[in-house]
DNA sequence: CGGAAGATTGAGAGTTCTCAATGCCTGTGG
DNA sequence: CCACAGGCATTGAGAACTCTCAATCTTCCG
C-alpha cells in the first residue's frame, strides 16, 4: 500500500500518525480479475474503493456496444470519492488488468476525512481528477486522432512517472488498441494507423504492450500537452 | 439572489438561518459585460465566484484560436469551488451574455463551509458538475454531430427548467452557432447544417435565439439523453 | 497443434471540415 | 428616415479525416 501513501503525498507531506492510519484502513484489499466491473452505473456504493495495483477505468455505455472510457485509474487513484452523497453512480468502474482494490468502509472513510491533511489531500485528488477529465474533454473536442493518441501517451507517461511505474523513456501499456479507441473516441483500426504514423514520424512506438517514447519534447509539442493540470508538483 | 438559493435547495432544503447567511454573503454582486473573462487559465483566485444571472462558460484554449468550451454555467452555478486548494486555474471562465457575478471572499466562504448543510450542498453541486462534464466527454467521444446538438439542447432545457428559466416547450438560447460549435467540437458551419436537419426532422428549431422543442421525447431518444446525471430530483 | 484474441493492412463509404459567397438583422450615423 | 457596417446565419462545392467491412497475420495459451 505504500505507493498509495506516496501518491497522496505528492499533494503534501503527511505526518506519521496519518500514514499509520492509512495503512490500517487500507487493510481490506481484494484481488479482481481483468475486465471485471468494480462499480456499475446505477450502483449506490457504501464503500469507497481505491486502486492498489493494476489498471482500471471509468466508463459510460452509450448505445448498444458503444463504450466511452472517461478516465484511466492507476494505483493510488480513488474510484468513488464521497459518491455516497449522490443518489447513484452515473458511470461504471472496471478493471482492465488484474488488479488489487482496497475497500474502505464508511466508518473508516469518516476517520480518514477527520484528519485535515488527509481530507485535504483527498479533496485535492478529486480536483486533479476533474482537471484531468476536463483535459480529456478538450482532447476529444479539439484534437485530431494523432494528437489525441500523443496526448494520452504523454499523460500516462507523466502519471506513471509520479508513482514510479515508468521507465526512463517509456512504460508498460496494458491496453488493447480497442480500449485505447474507447478512450479516445476512435475505432481500433484508426488507433492502429495513428500509432504506425507516430512510429514512422520517429515520435514513439508500441511493441509488445510497451511504449517507447523516442522524442518526448516533440511528442508533447504535437499533442500540445501541458502537464500542469496533473498538479504533479506539490 | 433568490434563484441561487432555490438552486442549492434542489439538492436539499436549507434552514432559515442558512438562507439568511447566504443572502448576506451574496451581497458583493458585480455586473460583467458579455464576452469578458471572469477567470483566466493560470489565475490564482482567492474569491469564489457564483453566477447570479446571465450565461457563462468554462473553456480551454488549445492552439491559436481553438477554444473548447467544457461547461455552460447558468444562474446558481459556482465558477470555482475551492479551487484555492490547487495551484492555479487549469481553465478559464468567461461570460457569454451580460452577467451578474457574486464575489465571495475567503472568509465568507469559510463561513458557508462551516454550515454542514450548505457545505454538503456545495459539495454535491461540485459532484453534479463533474457528472455533467463526464456526460459532455461522452458526447464528444461517442455521439455524432446531430446527437451532440440534441443532447446539448436536452441538457440545457432540463437545467433551465430547474431554475425556472425554461418555457413550456423551449427556452431562450443566447448562444451563437460558433459558441455552440466550440462546446460541441464542431465547426459553426456544421452546427448550422445539423440544426437545419433537426428542424426538417420535426424535432426542434432555433429562431431568433429561441429554441422551440417540437418533440422532446424523440429528441431525447435520438440523443440518448438520460437526465439522471443532473440530479435534478433531490 | 489448434483456437482465440489482438494487430495490421486495404478499399471504399460517410461524416465533417475548409474555403468562399451570399443573405439577414441590428445598431449607428448622416 | 435611410444607408451602411458588422456580426451572424445560411448555403454550396470540394477536400480531408475517420469509419466500416473484410482479409490476413501474429501472438499467446491450453
Give a brief outline of the structure.
Chain A contains eight helices and ten strands.
Please describe the structure with a list of short key phrases separated by commas or semicolons.
homodimer; 234 residues; alpha+beta; Jelly Rolls; Arc Repressor Mutant, subunit A; 2 domains; four-stranded antiparallel β-sheet; three-stranded antiparallel β-sheet; 8 helices; 10 strands; globular; DNA-binding
Secondary-structure blueprint of this entry?
Two copies of one chain form a homodimer.
Chain A: H1 2-9, H2 16-25, E1 29-32, E2 37-39, E3 48-53, E4 56-61, E5 67-73, E6 92-95, E7 99-104, H3 106-114, H4 116-142, H5 145-162, E8 170-172, H6 177-184, H7 188-200, E9 204-207, E10 210-213, H8 216-223
Antiparallel strand pairs in A: 1-7, 2-6, 3-7, 4-5, 4-6, 8-10, 9-10
Helix pairs in contact in A: 5-7, 5-8, 6-7
Chain A binds a DNA duplex (30 and 30 nucleotides) through residues 144-145, 176-178, 186-190, 192-193, 196, 208.
What does this structure look like?
The structure is a homodimer of 234-residue chains. Chain A has helices at 2-9, 16-25, 106-114, 116-142, 145-162, 177-184, 188-200, 216-223; strands at 29-32, 37-39, 48-53, 56-61, 67-73, 92-95, 99-104, 170-172, 204-207, 210-213. Chain A is of the alpha+beta class. Chain A folds into two domains: 3-116, Jelly Rolls (Sandwich), CATH 2.60.120; 143-230, Arc Repressor Mutant, subunit A (Orthogonal Bundle), CATH 1.10.10.10. In chain A, strands 2-6-4-5 form a four-stranded antiparallel sheet. In chain A, a hairpin with a 2-residue loop joins strand 9 and strand 10 (210-213). In chain A, helix 5 crosses helix 7 (188-200), helix 5 crosses helix 8 (216-223) and helix 6 (177-184) packs across helix 7 (188-200). The longest helix of chain A has 27 residues, at 116-142. The two termini of chain A are 21 Å apart. The interface between A and B is large, with 41 and 39 residues. The first copy, chain A, binds a DNA duplex (30 and 30 nucleotides) through residues 144-145, 176-178, 186-190, 192-193, 196, 208.
Amino acid at each position: 500500500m505504500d505507493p498509495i501513501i506516496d501518491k497522496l503525498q505528492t499533494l503534501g507531506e503527511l505526518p506519521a500518525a496519518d500514514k499509520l492510519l492509512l495503512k490500517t484502513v487500507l487493510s481490506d484489499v481484494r484481488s479482481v480479475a481483468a475486465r471485471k466491473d468494480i462499480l456499475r452505473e446505477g450502483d449506490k456504493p457504501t464503500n469507497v474503493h481505491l486502486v492498489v495495483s493494476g489498471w482500471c477505468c471509468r466508463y459510460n455505455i452509450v448505445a448498444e456496444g458503444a463504450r466511452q472510457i472517461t478516465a484511466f485509474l492507476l494505483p493510488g487513484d480513488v474510484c468513488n470519492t464521497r459518491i455516497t452523497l449522490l443518489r447513484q453512480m452515473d458511470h461504471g468502474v472496471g478493471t482492465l488488468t488484474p488488479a488489487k482494490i482496497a475497500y474502505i468502509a464508511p466508518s473508516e472513510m469518516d476517520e480518514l476525512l477527520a484528519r485535515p491533511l488527509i481530507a485535504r489531500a483527498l479533496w485535492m485528488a478529486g480536483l486533479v481528477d476533474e482537471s484531468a477529465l476536463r483535459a480529456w474533454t478538450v482532447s476529444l473536442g479539439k484534437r485530431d486522432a494523432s494528437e489525441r493518441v500523443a496526448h494520452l501517451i504523454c499523460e500516462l507517461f507523466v502519471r506513471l512517472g509520479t508513482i514510479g511505474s515508468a521507465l526512463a523513456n517509456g512504460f508498460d501499456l496494458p491496453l488493447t488498441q480497442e480500449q485505447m479507441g474507447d478512450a479516445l473516441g476512435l475505432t481500433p483500426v484508426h488507433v492502429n494507423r495513428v500509432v504506425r504514423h507516430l512510429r514512422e514520424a520517429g515520435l514513439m512506438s508500441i511493441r509488445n504492450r510497451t511504449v517507447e517514447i523516442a522524442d518526448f519534447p516533440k511528442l508533447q509539442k504535437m499533442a500540445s500537452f501541458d502537464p500542469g493540470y496533473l498538479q504533479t508538483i506539490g
